[in-house]
Amino acid sequence: MTIRQRLFISFSLILLIILSIIGVFFYTIFNLSEIHKSQTHRYDQIRRVEKLKEYNNSFSWIVLDIVTDYEKMDVVKKRLEKSDKLFKTLIIKKRVTIENSESIIEKQNLQQIFQYFEEIEKLIKYELYELVLISKDEKNFTPFNKNFEKLSFKIDKLLKEEIEYLQTRLDKTEKDRNQFIDTIKVELVFLFIIAFLLSSIISSRITKQIKDKLDKLNKGVLQLFKDDETTIKIDIGKNNELSEITHNLNSYLEKQSDIIHSREELLRNISHELKTPISKAKFLLENLRHNKDNKQIDSLNSVFVDIEELTSKLLQREKLNFAKVNSSKFKTSSLILESLSKLSIDDESKVEVDIKDDFNIHADKYYLTIALKNLIDNAMKYADEYPIVIEASENKIEVKNIAKKLSSDLIYYTQPFTREPNQQLGHGLGLNIVNKIIQMHDFKLDYTYKNPYNIFSITFKN
User: CA–CA separation, 369 vs 441, rounded Å?
Assistant: First the structure.
């Protein structure tokens, strides 16, 4: 598992805990809101019941006034009117009060209370009214008072029970609220502790893992310098970022090692290749000392031309080790014409160009021109008969010449300074340069022989 993946999993776990904390927070808000609604409801219900208690007391005062001042008709009528208003108000409050009851028992108690109020209403409206305003007999309020006090007492008792019930429920809600808050506090503290411990453990493990791998990588680098190694031979595991760094560094070191090896090989081959023309030049110079001979002067000139050509190709090959591909889009015909323009062809009839498909190429035109020019130059140089043929079709350019079949595979001729046995022409660098350029572009170089043609082809990407 990579460090990036470990970090992703770690942060996902921490994020999950944070989301849990946020969830707990909103859950707390929701529950506290519900508790607050419940408390508000019970406070309101207590106020309603307390109001019923006031009504009960009001009826008692009305009855007392009427009984006391029954001879004062104006006082009696006012008190009876007041009782009517109170009873009408009670009818309105009855529905609201009963609807806001929370239990069946509470509802039954409230219904009983209002039933008693209705009985009080009947006592006042009919019995008391008849005693005071209609009856001509001596006023005897004792039976009325007993009935009224009995009902009033029952109402008062039920109201006290209802208030105690509501207060008990309210106290319980308050207690539940406090317990809930305490529980949430514990849960939040627990989640924060888990988040802290988890982040500490994960960060310490990841830090330790990175430190261990960096220490190993550092040892590998030190070993690289100490033991003259070409790659870092330290195992820091697979599927992690540092193993990728090590792999990339090893690839770079291997490439540098190949370049150094190639240069060493090149220097050996250069020293070998230059011995022959230099020896010829020395021999010709010795002859020129004795007699001036134009033929020998021309031979000497060709030797230096040969050295110049070899030097040019060596520099060209060396530049390819550090070349960067600057791609552009161009036609096949443009590439062929530019490659031919770089060659000194004394007779155009020696070259036949057949462009069956002038397709687009996406590549570095400068280097690709060098590659195609070298293939054409080789075809011209080693042809037994002319013309040579340059053919373009289906994302492929073929260079054909009539000559003997090559004695070895293509891979042999793509090595520097390799030629056919007993071959005097060339230096064996042309195909090596071609192959390097083709590999730079990730194209394909092939060789086939179809009697009597040797065919070198470059296949381009679609």
Answer: 13
- Structural tokens at position 355: 């462009």
Interaxial angle between packed helices 332-341 and 365-381, expressed in degrees from 0 to 180 and rounded to the nearest 10 = 60
Across the chain, what does the average pLDDT equal? 80
In a 13 Å sphere around the CA of 271, the CA atoms on its Cβ side amount to: 5
Domain boundary at 276, 298, 319, which?
319
For residues 246 and 328, membership in a common domain is answered with: no
Range(s) of the domain holding residue 94: 3-198
At position 119, the amino acid (one-letter code) is E
Q: What is the pLDDT of residue 424?
A: 53
What is the spatial distance between Cα 162 and Cα 167, in angstroms, rounded to a whole number? 8
CA 458, CA 448: separation in Å to the nearest integer?
A: 12
Q: How confident is the model at residue 425 (pLDDT cuts 50, 70, 90)?
A: low
Q: Do residues 445 and 410 touch, judged by C-beta distance below 8 A? A: yes
- Give the percent of the chain with pLDDT over 70: 72
pLDDT by residue (tens digit) across 208-253? 877 777 777 777 667 665 555 556 666 666 666 666 666 676 676 6
Number of domains in the chain: 3
CB 405 within 8 A of CB 453: no
The percentage of the chain sitting over the pLDDT mark of 90, rounded to a whole number, equals 22
Residues 306 and 163 in one domain: no
pLDDT of residue 230: 58
Query: Residue 441: inside a domain, yes or no?
Result: yes
Nearest alpha carbon to residue 117 among 83, 87, 82: 87
Q: b/e string for 444-457 if b means 16 or more Cβ within 10 A?
A: ebebeeeeebbbbb
According to the model, what pLDDT value does residue 444 have? Answer: 94
| Bond preceding residue 387 cis, omega within 30 of 0 | yes
Burial 267-287 (b: 16+ CB within 10 A, else e): eebbeebeeebeebbeebeee
pTM recorded for the entire structure:
0.43
Tell me the CATH number at 77: 1.20.120
